[in-house]
Amino acid sequence: DLRKQARQLENELDLKLVSFSKLCTSYSSARDGRRDRYSSDTTPLLNGSSQDRMFETMAVEIEQLLGKLTGINDKMAEYTNSAGVPSLNAALMHTLQRHRDILQDYTHEFHKTKANFLAIRERENLLGSVRKDIESYKSGSGVNNRRTELFLKEHEHLRNSDRLIEETISIAMATKENMTSQRGMLKSIQSKMNTLANRFPAVNSLIQRINLRKRRDSFILGGIIGICTILLLLYAFH
């Protein structure tokens, strides 16, 4: 008896889900056709309240059938777990699992179709409000439209000016940071040089003495070479 009830409910659910899916498809097609007529000859959208009411009614009926089928499956599960039924009856467990899978498939299909329908309806309602806003804008006076366009252009110019000012400020800040870092590097180099000069004064004095001695030796050598040259010239002429 429980299997017969489950099959009957499954058949009813199958027919309801097919009709429910066709309703969603026809709703989308009707909306597309009305949108095409609206874009071609500016015909207003027809009211889809009748289809919405049909959708709500069918959704409630399918939810009730799913609830009944869930109850039947629970009763079959209780029967298989009762004391008078063999616990290792594979046929009963297979039948119960099959009905559970069918219930799960029907539930998933119902929620998927319902979500698609709601998404289409929400999108169409949003598009309808956008079209109304466009029509109200177009129906406004030419002076107001012109004034709005001027305001929009002025707003865009102000945004561009703000963006340019921000870019200029960013460049100036980056330049300032680079100059500051370079000044710090030069100061560190100068301090290091001063530290080295103060740390090795004897080396500096020694280098200076060596340079003075080299210069003196150069003068002496030059003098000797000059004297020898003069003596050679005098000897050559005499």
Describe the model.
- It is a single chain.
- The chain has a domain at 1-31 and 44-140: Topoisomerase I, Chain A, domain 4.
- The model is unreliable at 36-47 (pLDDT under 50).
- It is mostly helical and 238 residues long.
- The protein contains five helices and no strands.
- It is elongated, with a radius of gyration of 50 Å.
- It has helices spanning 2-41, 49-80, 90-138, 142-199, 201-237.
- Helix 1 (2-41) runs antiparallel to helix 2 and helix 2 (49-80) runs antiparallel to helix 3 (90-138).
- The termini are far apart.
Summarize the structure.
The chain has helices at residues 2-41, 49-80, 90-138, 142-199, 201-237.
Number of helices in the DSSP assignment: 5
Q: What percent of the residues sit in helical stretches (DSSP H or I)?
A: over 70%
Rg (CA only): 50 Å
Low-confidence stretches: 36-47
Number of strands: 0
What is the multimeric organization of the chains shown? single chain
InterPro entries: Golgi_SNAP_su1
Pfam families: V-SNARE_C (PF12352)
Transmembrane segments: 219-237
Family: Belongs to the GOSR1 family.
Task: Sum up the structure in keywords.
Golgi SNAP receptor complex member 1, Topoisomerase I, Chain A, domain 4, Golgi_SNAP_su1, transmembrane, golgi apparatus, 0% strand, mainly alpha, 238 residues, SNAP receptor activity
Secondary-structure topology with pairs:
Layout: H1 2-41, H2 49-80, H3 90-138, H4 142-199, H5 201-237
Helix pairs in contact: 1-2, 1-3, 2-3
GO molecular function: SNAP receptor activity
Family: Belongs to the GOSR1 family.
Subcellular location: Golgi apparatus membrane
